[in-house]
Amino acid sequence: MVISNKKIDQAGRRLINKESQLSVQEANSILQEFRLIHQHPMSLFRHIIGRKLKKYSIDAAPVQRLKRIPSIVKKLKIQKNMNLSRMQDIGGLRIVLENMEEVNLVRNEIKKVEKHGNFKFTFANEKNYIKNPPDSGYRSIHMVYKYNRNIELEKQCRLEIQIRTKLQHYWATAVEVLGTCLNQPLKQSLGDDKYLDIFKNISKLFVSLEEKDIVTTYKTGFKRFVDVG
Asked: What is the pTM of this model?
């Protein structure tokens, strides 16, 4: 079945109770199909990254995941102007590495693969939240690719590749877990300022640790963290 961007976006609107020509059942069916179509491209890209990690004897494994339906709907509700067909992280791969040297190496190796004639993806965009972190303190590299196939749904399929260090991953996981426990969207930088400020300072602490600047870590990041408490 061929589903147009228009139908996919109508499904997204219906699932967040906006005006749409679709029933809830139709919207759920379209979302499920659109979600599952990301599975094959994810597996292909995971294989590409796996080869690169093996080439450089990096002890890490790319993890692929399909965004859960409740998470998709929640994101549409929070980011009110987003169309479902343009959501870039329904299919995702994450590589958690030991340090920034490995992060930069893997990122650069992925960019090199783009030049290969048999590469089945097109680069869409990159956001380096390590070089340019948001105020929240989130740090990671996000690379988005579009899958190239002459099948309508798969032409619309985008994958988000996240590359980060272990410390950056621990931080992001803690934000998500606490947000879930408190029922607050801390991941989207919304919620109680007390918790948001704590995570901002922890992120600064982790930056110093990664840079091995222990003196600065103690005098600035850790002191501010204690003051917040």
From this structure: 0.84
